[in-house]
Amino acid sequence: MKVTIKVNGNQVAAEVADRTLLVHFVREVAGLTATNVGCDSTSCGACTVLLDGKSVKSCTVLAAQADGSEVTTVEGLADGSGELHPVQAAFHAEHGLQCGFCTPGMVMASVSLLAENPSPTEDEVRTALEGNLCRCTGYHNIVRAVLAAAPATRERRPA
Ligand code: FES
Ligand code: FES
Fold first, then answer.
1. The whole model's pTM is what?
2. Atom 3 in ligand 1: which residue has the minimum CA distance?
3. Is 40 exposed, middle or buried, given 0-12, 13-18 or 19+ CB atoms closer than 10 A?
């Protein structure tokens, strides 16, 4: 079947098998390999992207379900000048990563959280990221990064 998805602002159209997952469309058709696959059970969150602005685990969505939608991956966050999104900058500044495998999904889940809740508490951050697993950091610096990113993210919101 033919599927057309706007990925990071670019229309990507391809003939894919009906069972093609969105994460495979993103990685193999759009060629954007930062979005990772860490499990086959919807449990790790490494594949998190934004689908029409909301975070989804892209291993649980068929590419066909996203036909006609907009997807944002971590590659699409930085602006055209290469300046990092505040969440990316905060993960860097607060050392919110070690091996980095979970990081694209963590960042996208955090962007989604801050879009819905611009001033989260620490508990709200921890709850929002429950579906994203990290085997390295112990989560403390990730939570610190999200809290640190909140003011700059609020400033970027449309009035
Ligand atoms: S790869 Fe999607 S949740 Fe683990
Ligand atoms: S930084 Fe290694 S899994 Fe999170």
1. 0.95
2. 42
3. exposed
